[in-house]
Specification:
Its main location: endoplasmic reticulum. This protein has 478 residues and is α+β, with helices and mostly antiparallel strands. The protein is built from 16 helices and 12 strands. It has a domain at 181-211. The model is unreliable at 3-46 (pLDDT under 50).
Length: 478
């Protein structure tokens, strides 16, 4: 199926699927069709700039990322700081920025390697930066590098710094696996024992179940529910069919392959795996067919769930980095920036029933903050955690009922035109290293604005904990 034939068929058929929340029950009883809105032309937009008097303009000079790879493939023997170092070195090569000119480095990550808990610092030292340059690490689930970038914006806008590197990394090929709590307590007690008799007494208390390891899970601590289960329930609540999810996933992979083949994914820099090959491109892009996708079994809620391995983002290894500066500093150093980073918001909702609806809540807030409307936006880059998550957000954004009853708004948010939405693929196909995706979204937005002649882009993402992020990116004048 070609990309032109894969415009979403978003007419809804209400299904009698189990739905946990009362608002979802009431919402799913309302049939909403917004395919016509997805096809409607964007109105003429304003050409005003979003510069603010008395506030420094923050620009993206450039950004890069390592190829995003399926976990367990070519990066398997590395460590997170290796990939983060690769992104930083790639950015140094791409921009020719002097390491002495950088004033601060911030990285985002989610599942931390205990040996390098401040991965920003370890990566910076490994990449050849001076030990005099401060570096710190932030975490905010899937929007960790978004937080890294906005932290950098704050440093620059407030006058604390003029040149900051921000990025993110995730390494799912090797995650920390802990001993059980019982064994950890025993080992700590054993470490404090002074005599042989005391040590033997501690060892004698060890039981077979002490050796059961604790594996990390992509799950909510507050609800003990995996994100995949949440996505399945969300798809059911919004009456998103399996076919619609598979269609969207196929669209993502098809568009990503086209963008890769045509050289649009220019933020990717080669990564030399020591003793192995040099990796040059993402390896999770796999266009298939609806027939093949239909053969996959539900991955989380069995046997009647609709979320599968193919319509979900996959576990990914990768790192990203962007060079942010005050505009005046960038111009003084002879750079031609790619874009401005403008207004942004972080939002938070119920982590059980609205875990993945961050974009719906963030979009109207960031638009209102910037004084823009949906029609002003030329490029949309939304994080694709699951196909059902994206479609549920679009359906929520199209609903006056949801706006009034769940968001406290008088009217619906509105639906992004699908032809302007993730047109170079997204996390479903390119991959989703939790801590690195935010920078990828921003660079995709900046490059698409230039390629398509647009002025404003809207970046949005959901994150674990029921949180979300929205940001306006404005293209730099040609």
């Amino acid at each position: 199926m070609g990309a032109s034939k894969m415009t979403l068929k978003l007419t809804r058929v209400i299904k009698n699927l189990p739905i946990a929340s009362s608002w979802a029950v009431r919402f799913s009883a309302r049939s909403l069709s917004f395919s016509s809105q997805l096809q409607s032309p964007v109105q003429a937009k304003s050409k005003k700039t979003l510069a603010k008097s008395g506030v420094k303009n923050v620009v993206v000079v450039d950004g890069v990322r390592t190829p995003f790879l399926l976990s367990g493939t070519s990066y398997i023997d590395l460590m997170p700081h290796d990939l983060a170092r690769g992104a930083l070195q790639g950015l140094l090569d791409r921009t020719s920025i002097s390491t002495e000119a950088v004033e601060h480095i911030i990285f985002g990550t989610v599942i931390q390697e205990v040996k390098t808990s401040n991965v920003a610092r370890e990566a910076a030292l490994g990449a050849g930066f001076s030990d005099k340059i401060p570096a710190h690490t932030v975490t905010m689930a899937c929007i960790s590098s978004n937080q890294a970038m906005t932290s950098a914006v704050g440093l620059i806008a407030s006058g604390q710094c003029d040149v900051v590197l921000a990025g993110g990394v995730e390494f799912m090929s090797d995650v920390p696996i802990r001993h059980s709590r019982k064994m950890r307590k025993t080992m700590l007690t054993l470490n404090r024992a002074k005599t042989a008799a005391q040590k033997l007494a501690v060892v004698a208390k060890i039981r077979p179940d002490f050796f059961t390891p604790e594996l990390p899970a992509v799950a909510e601590f507050s609800t003990n529910e995996t994100m995949g289960h949440s996505a399945d329930r969300l798809a059911a609540a919004f009456a998103i069919s399996r076919m619609e999810q598979d269609e969207y996933a196929l669209r993502s992979h098809t568009l990503a392959k086209k963008a890769q083949d045509e050289g649009f994914l220019s933020d990717v820099v080669p990564y030399n795996v020591p003793g192995k090959e040099t990796v040059t491109k993402d390896n999770g892009i796999r266009p298939s067919s609806m027939e093949q996708l239909a053969k996959l079994k539900p991955a989380f809620i069995k046997p009647h769930g609709t979320v599968t391995a193919a319509n979900s983002s996959f576990l990914t290894d990768g790192a990203s980095a962007v060079l942010l500066m005050s505009e005046e500093k960038a111009l003084a150093m002879g750079y031609k920036p790619k874009a401005y980073l403008r207004d942004y918001v972080f939002v938070s909702q119920d982590p059980k029933d609205q875990l993945l609806l961050g974009p719906t809540y963030a979009t109207p807030k960031v638009l209102e903050k910037a004084g823009l409307t949906l029609a002003d936006i030329d490029v949309f880059e939304f994080h694709e955690a699951f196909a059902g998550q994206i479609l549920a957000n679009l359906k929520a954004m199209s609903s006056d009922w949801f706006a009034e009853n769940c968001m406290g708004r008088k009217t619906k948010v509105g639906v992004p035109p699908i032809e302007k939405f993730n047109s170079w693929g997204g996390s479903l196909s390119l991959g989703h290293p939790f801590g690195a995706t935010g920078c990828r979204l921003v660079m995709a937005a900046a490059h698409r604005l230039k390629n398509e002649g647009g002025q404003y882009a809207l970046v949005a993402a959901c994150a674990a904990g029921g949180q979300g992020h929205g940001m306006i990116v404005e293209t730099y004048p040609q």
